[in-house]
Amino acid sequence: MSYVDEVYERVVAQNQAQPEFHQAVKEVLSTLRPVIEENEEEYRKEALLERITTPERQILFRVPWVDDKGQVHVNNGFRVQFNSAIGPYKGGLRFHPSVTLGTIKFLGFEQIFKNSLTGLPIGGGKGGSDFDPKGKSDREVMAFCQSFMTELYRHVGADTDVPAGDIGVGGREIGFLYGQYKRITGLYEGVLTGKGLTYGGSLARTQATGYGLIYFLDAMLKANGRDIKGQTVAVSGAGNVAIYAIEKAQQLGAKVVTCSDSTGWIYDPEGIDVALLQEVKEVRRARLTEYQAKRPGAEYHAGKGVWSVKCDIACPCATQNELNLEDAKMLYENGCYCVAEGANMPTTLDATEFIQSKGMLFSPGKASNAGGVATSALEMSQNSERLSWTFEEVDSMLKRIMNNIFKNCDEAAKRYGMEGNYVAGANIAGFQKVAEAMKAQGVV
Ligand code: NDP
Ligand code: 2IT
User: Fold this and answer.
1) Domain ranges, residue 147
2) What order do you get walking across the sheet with 361-363 strand by strand?
3) Which among 56, 69, 218, 412 could bridge 428 via Cys, Cβ 3.0 to 4.6 Å?
4) Quick one: which ligand is closest to 288's CA?
5) Domain CATH number, residue 246
6) d(CA 355, CA 338)
């Protein structure tokens, strides 16, 4: 059996009932085959693939908190410190009822390669909880965040592990987490990113993942003789990534006709009204039915369905495995020629294979959504030098980073005879730097 297949079987056997983690490992290892085969003897002897697929440390903890009525609740807390070969662990925290250790491991594994692609010195980690912030008061969210940090603080720090936001963790949660870290440790340091602008946050971090996705998409389209201007785009999600992807796509002359949340989706043939969407989602934390109520030309549909709309480009920006084979077929039959992932692993493996087999352009999340974590690393730099940069400075660095990521994915794919396969390109380019650093640092 080949080394890649052996390691994949080992991962499945040792991490039972963690299908998303298996899926992420399978995608990465299968595209790394040519690189591994070149160095098989050496990698096998050093157990490099066994090490890279095993987290350096997994922290599981109890998070007790009291609601507004005095009832005590208990949630599970996680932080997976996956790989620190190229820098301190870096990656978001997800608060969503679906979160399990397997979810956090898949996200942490993806983060290793994503962070490597940014070209910045950050290792891979991820954390979170099965806590559901929906319907909770600000006081309850604060109680939860304070309890979560009361355990997490001993494992994180500006030079060891720097969490940030993800699904269900935005500016409000980062603020409460930061306040508690500072209270316990007495340290005013860059231990979290995505902070508010009054206490060490970076301009453009809020926009960075969505804007970065569109900068990457723009580079990919141009390299393939196309232009985003005038294109019709379907976006899923209505959170941090989706909102700023929609805003930037429309600034560059595209028309975005959809968005979605966990209960339904909007079709707005005139183009999504970003200011209204922000009011509904960022300010009022309400459902998309409220968007439709203020926008008579738009349709609201309950349940799933964004991928049934006719579009040129699809950007899944909500969650994992939200675009399956059936969706991919619908998109293709309706004339869509490009899928650019904003979320982490939103496309199932069979859908990705279908999309690539039809010659459609496809960018994997670990490359096209890397603008968020890259800008987090820029926030860390600003915190370390105790300065803050202008919006234009950060945004222009973000643009340069996204263009570089595209170039590196493109070149790595070409180097291994897989031109246009940006999944392979991203995995190879991301892996090579981490593997090199791991080899140099010996058996640790
Ligand atoms: P948010 O919590 O801000 O928004 C998530 C959006 O997706 C919401 O509209 C939410 O609906 C919807 N959603 C979440 N889970 C589900 C589900 N199970 N089914 C249907 N809809 C769902 O999160 P982000 O925008 O930050 O994250 C979106 C994706 O992007 C995730 O995959 C995340 O890992 C990834 N990502 C985020 C980065 C960041 O910087 N924030 C960086 C890189 C990747 P509702 O409004 O009903 O809750
Ligand atoms: O998936 C991701 O890259 C994020 N949620 C952002 C992580 C970060 O540290 O900014």
Assistant:
1) 55-188
2) 299-302, 264-267, 255-260, 232-236, 313-316, 338-340, 361-363
3) 412
4) 1
5) 3.40.50.720
6) 8
Mutate to test the pocket of ligand 1, among 241, 289, 307 (most ligand atoms within 8 A of CB): 241
- Lookup result for tokens 């090490």: 51
- The active-site residue, picked from 126, 195, 281, 366, is 126
Tens digits of pLDDT across the chain (444 residues):
899 999 999 999 999 999 999 999 999 999 999 999 999 999 999 999 999 999 999 999 999 999 999 999 999 999 999 999 999 999 999 999 999 999 999 999 999 999 999 999 999 999 999 999 999 999 999 999 999 999 999 999 999 999 999 999 999 999 999 999 999 999 999 999 999 999 999 999 999 999 999 999 999 999 999 999 999 999 999 999 999 999 999 999 999 999 999 999 999 999 999 999 999 999 999 999 999 999 999 999 999 999 999 999 999 999 999 999 999 999 999 999 999 999 999 999 999 999 999 999 999 999 999 999 999 999 999 999 999 999 999 999 999 999 999 999 999 999 999 999 999 999 999 999 999 999 999 999
Q: What is the CATH number of the domain that holds 169?
A: 3.40.50.10860
Q: Is 126 one of the catalytic residues?
A: yes
Q: How many domains does the chain have?
A: 2
Say if residue 212 is in the same domain as residue 324: yes
Q: Does residue 210 contact residue 244 with C-beta atoms inside 8 Å?
A: yes
Residue 135 lies in a domain: yes
Q: Whose CA is nearest to atom 28 of ligand 1?
A: 318
Asked whether residue 426 is domain-assigned, the answer is no
Nearest ligand to the CA atom of 109: 2
Residues 283 and 353 placed together within one structural domain of the fold: yes
Residue 417's Cβ-side half-sphere holds a number of Cα atoms within 13 Å equal to 3
Asked whether residue 133 falls in the same domain as residue 173, the answer is yes
Residue 302 lies in a domain: yes
Tell which atom from ligand 1 comes closest to the C-alpha of 281. 46
* Short-list 326, 377, 338, 323, CA closest to 220: 338
Strand-pair partners of 175: none
Q: Is residue 439 part of a domain?
A: no
**Mutate which of 115, 122, 167 to test ligand 1's pocket (most atoms within 8 Å of Cβ)?**
167
Q: Are strands 299-302 and 264-267 parallel, antiparallel or unpaired?
A: antiparallel
Cα 166 to ligand 1 centre (Å)? 7
Q: Tell me: do 318 and 345 sit in the same domain.
A: yes
Which of 339, 368, 397 is the last residue before a domain boundary?
Answer: 368
The residue from 351, 368, 385 where one domain ends is: 368
Tokens standing for residue 199: 């206490």
